[in-house]
Design a protein that fits this description.
Length: 181
């Protein structure tokens, strides 16, 4: 039995959960999320105990894999509509800057042209200063995906450490050719 999948999910005050067929909708103070789970998993919402329980129909390999996933997805939805998610990026490099103009993130990170990345709906992107980017939203997948795509525009390189990295990320540095002799 999946250790994660069999744990019940607590539903906090102010969060409304509705389950119809395979469609799960979670509504809270920060917004509304919905998701369709797979048919191998059964999701039951107990109104009195304020919990959600996920069970699987059989012990097939795919069902076991989806059991914990379904529980984690619903838990992430509940956390998203109550607290929200946040990713922070930092830009390291001389002349490297980030700004938010209208509905797009503009980056100058050492290329000949300025990079423009449109901000998807449902996310709030701010730049407290030119070297930091803060991405906020209620959907954990969307926040993580946008942060990963932004970081991929200029990954931190191993010799000088310049580029876009997650806040607090340690970049493994290489010696360079001076140490080869």
């Amino acid at each position: 039995m999946s250790r994660i999948g069999k744990k019940p999910i607590d539903v906090p005050e102010g969060v409304k959960v509705s389950i119809a067929d395979r469609h799960v909708t979670v509504e809270g103070p920060m917004g509304k999320l919905d998701w369709d789970h797979r048919s191998e998993i059964t999701v039951v919402h107990d109104q009195d105990a304020k919990t959600i329980v996920c069970t699987r129909d059989n012990d097939e390999r795919e069902s076991r894999a989806l059991h914990g996933l379904t529980r984690a997805m619903i838990q992430n939805m509940i956390v998203g509509v109550t607290q929200g998610y946040e990713k922070r990026l930092e830009i390291i490099g001389v002349g490297y800057v980030a700004t938010v103009q209208e509905n797009r993130l503009e980056l100058r990170v050492g290329f000949a042209n300025e990079l423009r990345k449109p901000i998807p709906p449902g996310l709030t992107v701010t730049c407290p200063d030119q070297q930091h980017i803060v991405i906020r939203g209620i959907d954990k997948q969307l926040v993580g995906q946008f942060a990963a795509e932004t970081r991929a525009l200029r990954k931190p390189e191993p010799y000088k450490g310049k580029g876009i990295r997650y806040y607090g990320e340690m970049v493994r540095r290489k010696q360079g050719k001076a140490m080869a002799k």
